[in-house]
Amino acid sequence: MRSAKRVIILSAVLVGLLIWPNIVLANGEDVFGTISLPGIFKYPRLEYKGLTQFLTNIVRLLIVAGGLFALFNIILAGYGFMGAGDDPKKMAAASAKIWQSLIGLLLIAGSLVLAALFGWLLFRDATIFLAPKIYGP
Predict the structure, then answer these.
(1) What are the extents of the domains in the chain?
(2) Under 8 Å between Cβ of 45 and 135
(3) What per-residue confidence (pLDDT) applies to 86?
(4) Beta bridge partners of residue 135, listed in sequence order
(5) How many of the other CB atoms lie within 10 Å of CB of 129?
(6) What mean pLDDT comes out for the span 86-106?
(7) CA dihedral 54, 60, 66, 71 (to 10 degrees)
(8) CA-CA distance, 98 to 8, in Å (whole number)?
(9) What is the pLDDT of residues 33-61, one digit of tens each?
(10) Which residues of 114-125 are buried (b: 16+ CB within 10 A; e: fewer)?
């Protein structure tokens, strides 16, 4: 009986939290105000050339190289795991290599996701850190 009461109370709280912002913001006012962009963004976008393109290509090259390295490690560790036979040390080493490669892939993907997320939150452009733009007069 107590757990049923807890579930009902928790459900009511969650529904209240989901409905409350809609009720508060129903009058159409902007609660947080507006922020105007700094003066640097008033200039037109320059062409995607030079140092910006070079650095973007270097970042892309490192991401692809890291992914290929992780794939190569997973394949080699899989062969090592299959060839380990009954040796627990070789099996543990191959398992550790597989996990470390998967963690490396997660770090690569996570860095891209975080860069896009921070770009979206700060500048409303998810590619601003992955493909930067230079503004000028």
Answers:
(1) 37-123
(2) yes
(3) 87
(4) 45
(5) 20
(6) 92
(7) -140
(8) 44
(9) 676 766 655 555 555 566 777 777 888 88
(10) ebbeebeeeeee
